[in-house]
Amino acid sequence: WMAVELQITGSFSGFLLGIQESSLVHIDRRQAVSRFFQYGDYTFTAFFTLDVIVRIIVLKRKFWKVCMNYVDAVVTVAAIVE
After folding, report:
1. CA dist., res. 50 & res. 44, Å (int)
2. What is d(CA 37, CA 25) in angstroms, rounded to the nearest whole number?
3. DSSP class of residue 18?
4. What tens digit of pLDDT does each residue of 8-19 get?
5. What is the distance, to the nearest Å, from the Cα of residue 50 to the centroid of all Cα atoms in its chain?
6. Whether 4 contacts 25, CB under 8 Å
7. How many CB atoms lie within 10 A of CB 66?
8. Alpha helices in the chain (DSSP H)
9. What is the pTM of this model?
């Protein structure tokens, strides 16, 4: 998801800087594309948050005994804060 977003926004930037002759998506659609990716980020954040919450509820203290669960929790909190 992020790779596609980076590719499209990079093509917008390249076009605006005169490095590319055209962008992957017409420049007039820039705001709509930005909004599309923003809603996608919200959707993924909601799913990851739900996943972590369900795992905490189901696993209880066992959740915190696996190191990768700390990473999941930190990434989820960072996505929410962002």
Report:
1. 10
2. 13
3. T
4. 999 999 999 999
5. 15
6. no
7. 12
8. 2-16, 30-59, 67-81
9. 0.73
